[in-house]
Amino acid sequence: MRSGYLRKFASLLLIFTVSIFSVGVYAADEKIVDNYAYYGFEPELITNYISNGKKLGFVRIGIELMVKDPEDLLALEHHDPLLRAAILEIMGSQTADKVKSLTGREEIRRECYDTVNRLIEQEVGRPIVVNLLFTKYLYD
Predict the structure, then answer these.
(1) Contacts with 115 (C-beta within 8 Å, 6 or more apart), sequence order
(2) Could you point out which of 27, 61, 67, 116 has its C-alpha 20 to 30 Å from the C-alpha of 131?
(3) Is 60 exceeded by the pLDDT of residue 10?
(4) Phi and psi dihedrals of 68, rounded to 5?
(5) Reported pTM
(6) Are the beta carbons of 37 and 67 closer than 8 angstroms?
(7) At residue 52, what are phi and psi to the nearest 5 degrees?
(8) Are the beta carbons of 36 and 129 closer than 8 angstroms?
(9) Please, what are the domains in the chain?
């Protein structure tokens, strides 16, 4: 009868020990988490693209730039006109087929991301944009 109590006690002790170490590991991992912040272009970007027919095509996009350090938002705000102009230039040079396809949309997003990071690196001395997200993407 006594061995049953010892087994239960040993099991509880094992569970308690594992839970304490799990909390310690979780706390250590929590320090690694970055404090991401987002910068959104306001107002949204609207421009024409190269259309196939007589109808003029336009695209309206909402863009958020993700950075690791919230202090980098000041640099993005300061260079907003430069970044906005570069994105509008990229969007205006796209064909209708590329604007309207999912793979084309991803290629455009990637080109915008690369251009924004290259320009901000020239101005600030380091690339600060972790990701570029299209939060709205409307075309006609």
Answers:
(1) 86, 87, 90
(2) 27
(3) no
(4) -75, -35
(5) 0.74
(6) yes
(7) -85, -35
(8) no
(9) 37-139 (3.30.479.30)
Structure-token match 């799990």, residue found: 22
Tokens standing for 95?
């064909």
The full length of the chain comes to 140
Phi, psi (degrees; rounded to nearest 5) at 50: -75, 110
pLDDT at 82: 97
> 86-91: which pairs have CB atoms within 8 A and are 24 or more residues apart?
86/112, 86/115, 86/116, 86/119, 87/41, 87/45, 87/63, 87/112, 87/115, 87/116, 88/45, 88/47, 90/115, 91/45, 91/47, 91/49, 91/59, 91/61
- 40 vs 73: CA distance, rounded Å: 10
